[in-house]
Design a protein that fits this description.
7 helices, four-stranded mixed β-sheet, alpha+beta, six-stranded mixed β-sheet
Length: about 300
């Protein structure tokens, strides 16, 4: 049998085919594209941003409860901006110093202010879209502070919203800006519920107007029902009262209504205000509060035993 010899031309052809085949195939072998892996990575990033935003909303709720003591500065950008109807600040240090002064935690603040409290009603916003864009967070609150430096120690009360703008800095979600609006001066008059910026002189008038001496005022004949102030608007207030027990009677003349309710509630503890209602058919009724219960408390525990 003759030995088989490979033709050099055939060897060259096989070598060339192998070389081009490797060059053609290798890019598809090395540079694989897996859409599922890419989608999973994108979802992971979005979930991380959502998680950080959720943490910031909880941090804000905690700060409001403690009146920013401590202020969680690690969640704020170093160059965070703050603006309310009276003040404009830049930087987290200035922001914290302003809060500490209002709370009476600085020397100047301890001279000027006392009994500062902020009541948080809700926190909303902070949604994250498919492009990881974060919507603003909005808080609704009521703030009160007493000007202890004045002899009559007036208390100023404000209700409104804070709008927090968030940004991603070095893979961390931070508060980069805050704007405050007061219900008493920033609410648009068109009943749209939206807010607008006003001149600082208007804000100053609103603040100083609350610090004026009350003058001679009639003393209430009964203790006032406790309530939570939800909104202090321009010339009106929205309040939340607790559960109450009332005694109600129809009347024609106001003095008759007082006499009738006075005879029925004799010996009972009474609370202001007295409420008078006029119905569609012009019928009138008057009611007096004789008991209340705060959330989580038993209502009838506040009613005098003479009622039961």
């Amino acid at each position: 049998m003759n030995n088989l010899r490979t033709c050099p031309v055939i060897l060259l052809l096989i070598s060339s085919i192998s070389h081009y085949a490797e060059a053609f195939i290798s890019p598809f072998t090395i540079r694989q594209y897996n859409p599922l892996t890419t989608l999973q990575a994108s979802v992971a990033v979005s979930n991380d941003v959502k998680g950080q935003v959720s943490v910031i909303k909880r941090v804000l709720a905690k700060e409001y409860t403690s009146f920013f003591d401590p202020m969680e500065t690690q969640y704020y950008a170093d160059d965070v901006t703050f603006e309310d109807p009276l003040t404009s600040l830049d930087g987290v240090a200035s922001y914290q110093k302003n809060v500490d002064m209002l709370a009476g935690r600085t020397l100047m603040g301890s001279i000027l202010f006392d009994d500062a409290k902020i009541n948080l009603h809700n926190v909303s916003g902070g949604e994250v879209d498919s492009n990881d864009e974060i919507s603003d967070i909005t808080t609704r609150w009521t703030l009160r502070v007493t000007a202890k430096i004045l002899p009559w120690k007036p208390t100023a009360t404000f209700s409104g919203i804070s709008v927090y703008k968030l940004g991603v800095i070095d893979n961390s979600v931070k508060i980069v800006g805050q704007k405050d609006y007061w219900d008493s001066i920033n609410l648009r008059p068109d009943a749209s519920g939206s807010y607008e910026k006003v001149d600082k002189s208007i804000a100053l008038d609103d603040f100083l107007g609350q610090l004026k001496p009350g003058g001679l005022q009639a003393q209430q004949s009964a203790a006032e029902l406790p309530y939570e102030l939800l909104r202090r608007g321009n010339g009106y207030e929205v309040r939340r009262y607790p559960e109450t027990v009332v005694v109600e009677a129809p009347y024609t003349r106001r003095d008759e209504g007082y006499d009738l309710l006075g005879s029925v509630t004799r010996g009972m503890r009474q609370f202001a205000p007295a409420v008078m209602t006029v119905g569609e058919s012009k019928e009138k009724s008057m009611c007096w509060y004789v008991g209340f219960a705060l959330p989580g408390e038993f209502l009838f525990g506040y009613i005098e035993s003479s009622i039961l």
